[in-house]
Fold this sequence. Notes:
Helix content: 40-55%
Strand content: under 5%
Amino acid sequence: MTTNVGGVDKLIRIILGLGIIGAGVYYQSWWGAIGAIPLLTAFIGYCPAYPLFGISSCCDKKE
Length: 63
């Protein structure tokens, strides 16, 4: 499993995940638990949907 989530993508996922969790807590809905998905993918640096579409937001610096 190679890293396919870049720095900006990680930041967006963390903000989005925290926002979804916050909305779930505010509205007292279990749907806020979905916010754990973007947080998890940000922290492990891998998104399982990206390989399906051939996407990678991680910049490969090969010197």
